[in-house]
Amino acid sequence: MASAVRAKSTAAAATAKASAGSVPVAVAVEESSDDSSHGSSWMHELHSSQESIKFPIRKSPEVNNSVLCVDPMLSLIKDLEQIESDALEVTSLKSAQEAFLDAITKRFNNRCGHYSQFCVENNIKHLFALVSITSDQNEFLLGIRTLIQTIKIELKTHKKGGLRFNDNICFIERLRDEKCPLSLQTKRHKERIQAMLYEHQPWRIRERMKTASVALVLCLNIGVDPPDVVKIQPCSRLECWIDPSSVSPPKAMELIGSNLQMQYERWQPRARYKKCHDPTMEDVKKLCTSLRRNAKGERILFHYNGHGVPKPTVNGEIWVFNKTFTQYIPLSIFELITWMSAPSIYVYDCSNAGIIINSFQPYAEQHEHELEKALAAAQQRGGVQQLAGGSSGSLNVAGNQVQLPNQLVSYKNCIHLAACAANEILPMNAQLPADLFTSCLTTPINIALKWYAMQEKLGMVPRIQSELIDKIPGKVNDRRTMMGELNWIFTAITDTIAWNTLPRELFQRLFRQDLLVASLFRNFLLAERILRSHDCTPVSLPALPPCYRHPMWKAWDLVVDLALQQLPEILDHNAPYRQLPFFEHQLTAFQVWLDSESESRTPPEQLPIVLQVLLSQVHRLRALELLARFLDLGPWAVNLALGVGIFPYVLKLLQSSTRELRPVLVFIWAKILAVDPTCQVDLVKEYKYFLSVLQDTSVSKEHRTLSAFVLSSIVHNFLLGQTSALQGPLLSICLEQLNDGSWLLRQWLAICLGMLWQNFEKARWSGARDLAHEKLYVLLRDSIPEVRAAAVFALGTFISSVTDRSEEQANNIDRIIAITMLETVGEDMSPLVRMELAAALQWMVLLFESQFVAVYLSDHMRGHGSFVMTGDPRDLTSSTHSLERHVTIRRGASSSSISNMAGASTISVASSSTITLGRSKSGSSSSGGRGTAGAAGGTNSIPFQSIFTKLWLGICNLAQDPFPRVAAIAQEIVDHVRNTALCPIMAAKEATTATSSDKCSSLSVSLPPSPNTRVNYLGGGGGPGGAGAAGESPPVGAAASGASHWATKLRLSGSASTTTAVTSGDPQTILQRKLRTSSINDETDSGPAYPRGAGVAGSGLGLPSGPRESTHSARSSGSESNQYLEPGHSLTPIVTTEFIPWAISYFTRPGKERYSNAEGVAEEGRQRFPVDRNSAELRRRKARFIRNNLVRRNAHRQHQQSDRFGYDVCVWNRKTQFTPSIVKLLPYEPQIAVAYRDKVLVYDFQYQSVRTYSAEALATEASSSAGSTIGSSSGYGSVSGSSLSLNGSISRKSAGGGSVSQSAAQFARVSSIEFINAHDMALNLVAYEDGVVRVWESSPPASSASTEDSPNQARMLTAWTALGQVVNQTGHRFRSNFEKYAEVSGNSLGGSGSGSIVTAWQQCSQHLIIGGGGCRFIRIWDVERELKLADIPLGRSETYARVLAPYLPNMRSDVIIAGCDDGTVQLFDKRCSPQDARISVYRRHSAPILHTSQRANESVLVSGCTEGRISVLDVRACPHSHWFAEKVLHEWDAGSDVTAIASHQIADTVACGNASKVGIYSLDGRVQKVLRTNEGFIGPKIGHPTWLSFHPFKVQLAVGFVDNTVAIYSPTPVL
């Protein structure tokens, strides 16, 4: 105490000395709620004469428009070092002591407050004592040195912590609009949380076919020409490249047949070939029937060469021979088809071949029609079960074989190829073979080269002879040779022509179903080109569009020309073959198509060629990269690629060990699996490929993320994939990388873990051994909401993976996980996370359903005494039912009674109904999960009771969530528990009501007290005889009443007891059985468990399972777990979300709609879209930025004239329905926001429109989007009620309904309005008095169609409880808590009353500062990451923030300025820790602060209180002295009855309003304009203002009056 007195006297002397020198002395005092933090009591005693805390701020020339602060402790070190050196040199200790006091007064008391100075203060306190009493210079120097060392240690320690004390505090810094970030622009805000909608096109071949047999029928009759054909001379003679005249006819026939077979074997080597030379009809029949018998359901090829017989007849007959070769015998095509049956393919190489197809078509159509009629008749007789293939023509109808006529076989799969059309003859050019059509089909390269060499117009140099073409080296299947590469290119070109010309379905059938058919049709395209040049038109069935003029044929001509140019050198000089540049050129063309970026472009014609290039090692990497770019265009591109046949190519490439291919292959497979998840079956064997990519840290994070997604798809709901992945180190690899810097990788690692152990208990226990659930806890606090939601999903599937609850270890782990999730993300800002939390908590409800039912029943009975239901007129509210009395008795009698749920150790039954559920802080527990009875007073110990109570409260709070979709999901869970608990009781009441009308006294509904009587009465089989005594049957059940509502619910629940002793399905019996197992840890009176799905004799009633048919809601018996579930049986969820399909759609969408994949520390935590420089959206944004600059420039010119004109014109006014509580002008739009009660209205001056943001607007959108899914993240949907008891009963249209009422529940009163993205497209952030913040978007979603001029409907982007946690800690509901403060203060709930929430939005940092509502802190939310950053305490226990200084849209600042209820204005540095954030406190007011604001581009602070005192302070240090002082620039009184104050942040204007006037003042207190009652030329009557607000830039003043009027005043009549 003596030291304190000496300190006071020393400080007084210092003050007097300073006064003598005309230098103001100011001492800073840091206020705190206790004396041990931020300054000690002796410092307060030392400087009690000074009231204000001053803070030195200097102007920095380095940073434009910024106000900076330098830590004074650095200067203090220099002063102390100087004192130390002076003390060593001078002999007088007194002068050194005086210098020390001066240094302390100048430096220490003006600290910035960045760090704790407890140790420093202790040293200073010690030195103060030494100053007065010591005469030892060494002791004094030792103290000085200790203090210097302590300060240096403090500085060094905090520098290591990442915050340098000489860091400059940015008060104000202006950013350009382009540099100012946009908020709430991520996918979770801009679109619905649901799977991406796109057209799924089938690409898999449903039934692959194989041509197993080939019939080669040659009717040549060598040496004898047919009578109806006159051949020219010279004439084509070659058949299968053999001249028949060169050898004897029999030998020639044999050679021709052998060559034809060899030519076909090139395309189908494994088929069975049968030759038939110059056959008779019997030979053909025998051949065809034998082949069909052996081929069964496979395809047969019938090749017919009719060059030695007449042309087919008009009746569709082909010619064969008799046995003696003396006659031509006609063979009807219909007979041939009957022998061949289906499926089959026919090749007709003869003149007039088209007439055969013309005859077949009507025949096939007629038979198809007759087959349909026969099938319909068979179905009418009993239902067709199976259609037998082949020629049997039998149907299995209801177990009986029904024989159908053989001719009624479907000919849809019959294919016909004819060499020419009807009435056409084959070409006879001697340079071409006679079987030109067959040559094109079987030897396409040879005939194509020969035909090309014949074309004189091509002018080849050098001229290639036909003999050289026969010597082309190489094999067809060797792509390194000329012949092989030509065949390879020919395959690619013909595939491309067909894919670009044919319909997709026909292309799949002809070119992908059968290898031989695909080869024949590729070659058929060449035959069409060659034969058409000789006036023949090949015909096919199914018919193909003309392809002979396709542009790709020119590419083929170029390839042939380049190849033939090399041929002479190769043959004459043995020169090496040079690879052709065809594929390289086509890849370049494909790349040009990809670079075009046209939205209306047609699919690329080079896609089939790209697939062929994958076979080349030289161009494979480039082809894969281009293919990946193509697949990145969207689902339509993936469907095209799969349809063209990409799948087998990329699947085969997974066996390649080339590291360069890994990233691109992973990307391609990710795109494929995102569109078609069924490919997981094909990838099970190749999962190690993707596992190696995920494990390789040298691979980019983007591709590791894709690999994690592929692995997730492989294990998703696929047991074989889960088993295979678990055998590999997938679990450990995912856990090792959970803390990776890439947020997308973290998200998909968590999802992969969740899918791995979903319904797979073995993986769950492997994860439990590795503490996977504890490692996922870290992701619950991740900075990205998608990652937090993925972690919640993984933990939810972790809980649901074990359905056998006999293991107490699993129960304990799951309880801990559920509580951890609820405590960590229960009040998360993101609705996406809260939706996943509700979906995860449902598994606890399903697995521990009896415990939740017990919590519900106990709360319901304690609150009402009986089960009083609302909403359903059939509910009975009587409390005299014996079953309800039995519940009360059981609650008092059972050893596991939940009467002590509230935490009391002893409690009586009579007083149990007065306990408020949920106040328990701890509960006794045991390892076995069973309760133990106490000795004294019959106390009951309830283990885990507080856990289920807390979980139930969390679910009920989610049912009250401000975001409608979250509330709807949680409400379904609440309704499930409610219906499960109350269905038996209400059914029993209905049964009792129906029974009481019989007036039969023997059917009493009261429970007999005797245990034996009760057992017999319930018919439980507990007696010696196994059944109750005669005459003791229970009352007639609800089955006797067909109109029973609740009994119907029970009946539909699908469960019943299998106990054979139960002789009735009486609801009371079911209820008794239910009540015996509904207590928590009921050990003394537990009945057998009820198996699901078994019927009860004489009744269709069963145990309730809630509103859904499921297998998860049977009661457990005796333990916490529901033991009815057999191991391995998965639970049926109550609700489902669309988070996982929505997350998968991230890889489905085009690349330009995904976030940028830029890597680096600065980019990994961001969700930014790639910039499209040509997008219309970017151009519109630039136009808005230009508009913003124009607004600011015009406003600057207005500021120069505002003093001359004043605010003398009312340029706009509007009547409102109620008194406006808030009015606010948008910075750049011609709009004003007006709030009253729970509504916010935004008036648009330009379009003369108004938009409303309220519960009614939300309900309107809900009704218009009722068909949307539960998982939608948009604001559409119903609104939950504003109050909810523990049992979750809120008002609904029907008591049994599972959805929240569509009628809009009223919001709380609007307390604050902010504009997000005001420099672009403004979003409206509205804070309500219950602590809820909602963000509204005026424009409709992108998916809905509307014009710009049409009135837009409001859409809620997000909503969360910004101050709910602290308000809950007070023990009050949100609304009642704020109303309490309002009643104490006497202020209205609107405006800045004690119950109001105050906000400040900073666009540059995307931070929302929120306070008020009686809270003793200021909370900072990161809106972009949807995280709570800090709760900054205000220092004094009785104060709270009343106003927060606003920020201009493009101003950055590190300082928060809060005006408090005790009259102080406090400054905080939000970069610091919450305890060290406060940097200064100003006390210029003695009444609550009504307004505070910092001037733009200046360090001037304007504040005003309810007493009308206005202060204008300069928070910079005084430049004329080494002493620091608060510089009060101006101060004046505006009157004691001021109700509203506002100041312009740019103009020199302050507005104050009272009951009689609105005064406009300059900053120095001069009156510029007074708007009095009845004043204004065209303006309204000036009433009592409730709110004043200046435009952020323009010289405009918005005023709200008590007479329901809003007006805008401006110096000029132009708005």
Biggest sheet features? 6 strands, mixed
The general outline is elongated
Helix content: 25-40%
Question: What would you call the structural class?
Answer: alpha+beta
Q: Total number of helical segments?
A: 47
Major sheet strand order: 5-4-6-9-13-14
Find the count of extended strands (DSSP E, 2+ residues). 43
The first-to-last residue Cα distance is 66 Å
Which stretches are low in confidence, meaning pLDDT under 50 for 5 or more residues running? 1-70, 110-119, 157-167, 383-407, 865-943, 999-1043, 1051-1128, 1265-1304, 1340-1351, 1366-1391, 1517-1525
Strand content: 5-15%
Could you tell me the radius of gyration in angstroms?
44 Å
Q: What average pLDDT do the residues reach? A: 74
